[in-house]
Design a protein that fits this description.
heterodimer; A: mainly alpha; MetI-like fold; 2 domains; two-stranded antiparallel ribbon; 15 helices; B: mainly alpha; 70% helix
C-alpha cells in the first residue's frame, strides 16, 4: 500500500530501522514544522481566551462547591450552595423569574423584531435602507446612553412622561416609575426593547441582501400569493446560518441583562423587583464577598444559557 | 390574478405581484413608529444637553430647546472637577483604553482567525467549536469568577483589569474567521507555490484583503471599550473612565440632567461617527456571519 509497507516487504533487513522510534520523533518535528506558523498565530489569542474566558467558567464550577470569602482558602461544602439557592433564597427565585422574562419573552421579541424590521427595509432603495439601518441600530450604537430613560421615567412631576400624563389628565399624581414595584419591570423591558436591534439586526440586514435573486423571481412567476408566503418558503430557508448567529447574540445579551436594571432602578432595587441572575451574582460576589455562593448562581446561569442554545439549535435545524 | 395571466416573461412586472399597496402603507406606518421610538430618546439627549436649567425644570416640560446654551458643558467640567476627577482625565482614560484595546484586539483576533479559517488540522477545528460556543458568554456573566482571577493575578485597580477581558473574547475572532473563509484557497495556494512563507501570506495578502472585517471589528471593539466602566475592577478615582463618571452623574437625578445629557452626548458621538464612515464595510462583513458547520 504505502511506501513504508512496500519497503519492508522488499528489504526485510531494513524493517527494524523503519520501526524505530526515531521515525516517530521526526514525525512530531515534521508536524511542528508544518503547524508552526498556525501555532504562533493562534498563541496570543488562545492564551488570553483560556485565561480570561474559559478559566473563569471552570473556576466558577469548582468554587461553587466551596465556601470562599477571598480572605481565607476555600473550604469544600458539597452541594450546600445549591441547596441554599433553591430552597432558602427567595431573592434567587425573583432573579430567576426576571431572567426568564428577559430570556423567554423579551429576548425572542427582540430577535423577531430585529429580523422583521431587517426584512421590511430590505426592499427599499439602497440609500433609504442605509439610513434606516442606522436609525434602528442607533440605540445599541450609543451604548450606555440608555440612562436617558431615567429622565423620561423620572418619578417627580417634572419627569417627562409624568408631566405629559398629568397634563393630559390621565393621572393626578406622578407615578414612581423607577421605584414602584408595579412598574419597574415594565420600564426595564421598554428600555431593553429599545436596545434590541444590535449585532444580530446588522447580520440580518446584511444576510438578506446577499440572498439569491433567482428563487424570488421563480416564485413570482409561479404566483406566490403574498409577501409572507415568500418569507416562509423562500427567504427563511436561506437564512438559517444568519438566524443561528442572531440567536447566539440574542442569548448572550438576554442572559447578561442586569447592569441596565441597576442603572435604571438602582441596586439593590426596591424589593429586588428587577433583580436578575447577573445582579444576584454581583450582589453576593461584589458586595457580600460570598464567592462560593455567587459562583453557584453563575453555574446555574451558564447551564440555562447552554440549555437555551441547544433548544435554539434544534428549532432552527430545519433551515440549516 | 389578472396580473398573473399577463405574460410571465416580464419578470420586472411580476416581481411586484406579491406586494399589495395597502401592505406597503402598513409597513411604512409600522417602521415610522418603531423609528420614532428608537430616535426620540436620543434626540431628547441632544436637546437636553443644550437646555438651560430653567427649561429642564420647567413645568410642563417642552421637548425642544427654546434658548440653547452651552452652560451644561461648562457645568459638566466644573462638577466633575469638584466631586470626582477632572473631566479631561476621564476622557483621556476612556480614549486611551479604547484606542489601545481596539488595536490590540484587531491584531490578536485576526492572527488567530487565519489558521481557524484556513487550517484543517483537527485541533484547529476543535478550537473553533469552543470559540463559537464561547460567544454566548459575555464578560458580564463571568464577572465574579473573573474578579477572583484578577485579584489572584494582582490586576485589580490596574489598566489591565479593563483591557484584558475586552481583548480575550471570541466574537471578534469569529467575525474575522468568517470573513477569511471567503478568500479563495487557490489564492493562498498560489502564493505558497511562489514561495511565500505563511507569515508573509498572512501580513502581505490576507490582512489587506480582509480590511472590511477589521474595520467592522474596530467599530464593535471601540464601542464596547468606550462603554466599559467596570467600577468593581477600578476603585481609584483618577483611573475611572467616562462611563463611570456618567453613571455617577445620572445617579444624581434630574437636578443634574443637563450635565448628564451633555456627557451622554459626548459619549455617543464617537461611535456614531465611526459607524457612519465605515457602514458599508460593516454590512459587507456581517453578510458572512452565518454559523454553519
Amino acid at each position: 500500500m504505502d511506501i513504508k509497507a512496500d519497503t519492508k516487504k522488499k528489504y526485510p533487513d531494513l524493517a527494524p530501522m523503519l520501526n524505530k522510534k526515531g521515525n516517530n520523533q521526526s514525525g512530531i518535528r515534521k508536524w511542528l514544522y508544518k503547524q508552526g506558523p498556525s501555532l504562533i498565530l493562534l498563541a496570543p489569542f488562545t492564551i488570553l481566551f483560556f485565561l480570561f474566558t474559559i478559566l473563569p467558567i471552570i473556576a466558577a464550577i469548582v468554587l461553587s462547591f466551596t465556601y470562599f470569602n477571598m480572605g481565607s482558602a476555600p473550604t469544600f461544602v458539597g452541594f450546600d450552595n445549591y441547596i441554599r439557592m433553591f430552597f432558602d433564597d427567595q431573592v434567587f427565585w425573583i432573579a430567576m423569574k426576571n431572567t426568564a422574562i428577559f430570556a423567554i419573552i423579551t429576548g425572542p421579541i427582540s430577535y423577531m423584531l430585529s429580523f422583521f424590521v431587517a426584512w421590511l427595509i430590505n426592499e427599499f432603495p439602497r440609500w433609504l435602507r442605509t439610513i434606516l439601518t442606522m436609525v434602528f441600530y442607533l440605540p445599541s450604537l450609543a451604548g450606555n446612553v440608555y440612562f436617558v430613560w431615567t429622565y423620561i421615567f423620572s418619578g417627580d412631576s417634572v419627569g417627562f412622561l409624568n408631566s405629559i400624563l398629568i397634563k393630559l389628565s390621565f393621572i393626578q399624581d406622578p407615578i414612581q416609575w423607577l421605584t414602584d414595584t408595579k412598574y419597574m419591570m415594565a420600564v426595564v423591558i421598554v428600555v431593553i426593547l429599545w436596545l434590541s436591534m444590535g449585532t444580530g439586526f446588522l447580520s440580518f440586514v446584511a444576510g438578506l441582501q446577499s440572498l439569491k435573486k433567482d428563487q424570488f423571481e421563480a416564485a413570482a412567476i409561479d404566483g406566490i400569493p403574498n409577501r409572507f408566503a415568500e418569507l416562509w418558503y423562500i427567504t427563511l430557508p436561506q437564512m438559517g446560518p444568519q438566524l443561528l448567529f442572531g440567536a447566539v447574540m440574542q442569548i448572550s445579551v438576554s442572559f447578561a441583562i442586569g447592569y441596565e436594571c441597576m442603572n435604571l432602578t438602582g441596586f439593590p432595587s426596591t424589593d429586588y423587583a428587577t433583580q436578575t441572575l447577573v445582579l444576584h451574582i454581583l450582589d453576593f460576589g461584589g458586595v457580600r464577598f460570598e464567592m462560593g455562593y455567587a459562583c453557584a448562581v453563575a453555574v446555574v446561569l451558564f447551564a440555562l444559557m447552554l440549555v437555551m442554545w441547544t433548544l435554539i439549535n434544534k428549532l432552527l435545524s430545519k433551515w440549516l | 390574478m389578472a396580473k398573473k395571466n399577463k405574460a410571465p416573461q416580464f419578470v420586472e412586472s411580476t416581481k411586484k405581484f406579491s406586494r399589495s399597496k395597502s401592505g406597503t402603507a402598513v409597513i411604512f406606518i409600522f417602521l415610522t413608529l418603531i423609528g420614532m421610538f428608537m430616535v426620540l430618546p436620543l434626540l431628547y439627549v441632544v436637546v437636553t444637553a443644550f437646555k438651560p436649567l430653567s427649561e429642564i425644570l420647567a413645568y410642563p416640560p417642552k421637548f425642544f430647546v427654546r434658548h440653547p446654551t452651552l452652560d451644561n458643558f461648562v457645568d459638566l467640567i466644573e462638577i466633575t472637577q469638584e466631586t470626582w476627577i477632572p473631566f479631561e482625565r476621564s476622557l483621556l482614560n476612556s480614549l486611551s483604553l479604547s484606542a489601545i484595546g481596539t488595536v490590540a484586539y484587531i491584531l490578536i483576533a485576526s492572527m488567530a482567525a487565519y489558521p481557524l479559517a484556513k487550517n484543517n488540522a483537527k485541533y484547529v477545528k476543535g478550537l473553533y467549536q469552543v470559540v463559537v460556543l464561547a460567544i454566548l458568554f459575555r464578560p458580564e456573566v463571568t464577572r465574579t469568577p473573573l474578579y477572583i482571577l484578577m485579584s489572584g493575578l494582582g490586576l485589580i485597580n490596574t489598566f489591565w483589569s479593563l483591557l484584558l477581558p475586552a481583548i480575550s473574547g471570541s466574537f471578534g475572532v469569529f467575525l474575522m474567521r468568517q470573513f477569511m473563509m471567503t478568500i479563495p484557497n487557490e489564492l493562498i495556494e498560489a502564493s505558497r507555490i511562489d514561495g511565500c512563507s505563511e507569515m508573509r501570506i498572512f501580513w502581505g495578502m490576507i490582512m489587506p484583503l480582509v480590511k472590511p472585517a477589521w474595520l467592522t471589528l474596530a467599530i464593535f471593539t471601540f464601542k464596547d471599550l468606550w462603554n466599559t466602566g467596570e467600577t468593581q475592577y477600578i476603585y481609584e478615582e483618577s483611573m475611572k473612565t467616562l462611563t463611570a463618571v456618567m453613571q455617577s452623574i445620572s445617579a444624581a437625578g434630574i437636578a443634574r440632567a443637563g450635565a448628564g445629557a451633555a456627557v451622554a452626548l459626548i459619549m455617543m458621538i464617537p461611535p456614531i461617527i465611526v459607524f457612519i464612515i465605515s457602514q458599508s464595510s460593516v454590512i459587507e462583513t456581517m453578510a458572512n456571519t452565518g454559523i454553519k458547520d
